[in-house]
Amino acid sequence: MAFEIENALYVVSTPIGNLSDITLRAIDVLKSVDVIACEDTRITSRLCEKYDIQTRLISYHKYSENKRLELFLSYLNEGKSIALVSDAGTPLISDPGEILVRTVVQNGYKIIPICGACAVITFLQAVQREGEDFKFIGFLPRVKGQIEEVFLKNKSENLVFYESPNRIEETLNILKGVRPNATLSIGRELTKKFEEIKTATVEDILDSLIQKGEFACMVHKDKDCNFEDEIIKKASILRELKLSDKDTVNILCAFFEYPKNKIKEILFKL
């Protein structure tokens, strides 16, 4: 039975390293659509060669997102189908595609997700942590002060992020500076021959760090983090500055990313 394709944008997950990590449905879609929008045609062509996918490839990356919108919409207007892939993993998860998806939806066309490999999920499958919850923020900011703020504001979260090999050492040293006792998990070369996933103190990770391959990282939540005490301390300072309760609540919400009603309950106790 032939695979039935729709007049739609298919968002297709592709392998993050090992080319065998692709679903049968994803292969069917990539073979059946009219065009494949991909970050780098050279990288996607390797996958296409392995699975005998003959579909035309069109480059679509963060520098050409807006330029390609009219072209892809014209395909959809003609009743054709498009597959969106990234170089590795799932599009829109720290990869281009958000602008295209938004535009396609605004023009009344359907988005069909084709699930598969995703670096953050692959990494978390092998990480022991307290609870199932985590907070994924993609790539960290570039400025040291902003990175410090992210690490400090998220002490009560299992904070997950991506980092490049040329920035990982600097980032972990920043973490060590603001949270020296933090527990850290890192994963690199995921699904590849030299895959490494380990959990240790940030200092121990730095001592044995191999700066090769993209990194997925998780800073484990602080077990003894008491946000209520921290909120009370900051609220007392803000009140000394003669700020209104409304302004105090808004500032604390922004700083701690804590529910407004919970902060009001804490302030009521003061």
Strand content: 15-25%
Helix content: 40-55%
How do the strands line up in the largest sheet?
Answer: 3-2-4-1-5
Order of H and E elements: EHEHEHEHEHEHEHEEHEHHH
Number of DSSP E strands: 10
How many discrete structural domains?
A: 3
Q: Which stretches of 5+ consecutive residues score pLDDT under 50? A: none
SSE layout:
Blueprint: E1 8-12, H1 24-32, E2 35-38, H2 41-50, E3 56-59, H3 65-77, E4 82-84, H4 98-106, E5 110-114, H5 119-124, E6 135-139, H6 144-153, E7 159-163, H7 168-178, E8 183-188, E9 196-201, H8 202-207, E10 215-219, H9 227-240, H10 245-256, H11 260-268
Parallel strand pairs: 1-4, 1-5, 2-3, 2-4, 6-7
Antiparallel strand pairs: 7-10, 8-9, 8-10
Helix pairs in contact: 3-4, 6-7, 9-10, 10-11
Q: Short summary of the structure?
A:
This protein is of the alpha/beta class.
How would you characterize the overall build of this protein?
With 270 residues, this protein is α/β, with parallel strands linked by helices. It has three domains: 8-117, 3-Layer(aba) Sandwich (Cobalt-precorrin-4 Transmethylase, domain 1), CATH 3.40.1010.10; 120-219, 2-Layer Sandwich (Methyltransferase, Cobalt-precorrin-4 Transmethylase, Domain 2); 227-268, no CATH class. 40% of the residues lie in helices and 18% in strands. It is built from eleven helices and ten strands. It has helices spanning 24-32, 41-50, 65-77, 98-106, 119-124, 144-153, 168-178, 202-207, 227-240, 245-256, 260-268; strands at 8-12, 35-38, 56-59, 82-84, 110-114, 135-139, 159-163, 183-188, 196-201, 215-219. The strands form two sheets. The protein has a five-stranded parallel beta sheet, with helices on both faces. Helix 2 links the parallel strand 2 and strand 3 (56-59). Helix 6 (144-153) packs across helix 7 and helix 10 (245-256) packs across helix 11 (260-268). It is globular, with a radius of gyration of 23 Å.
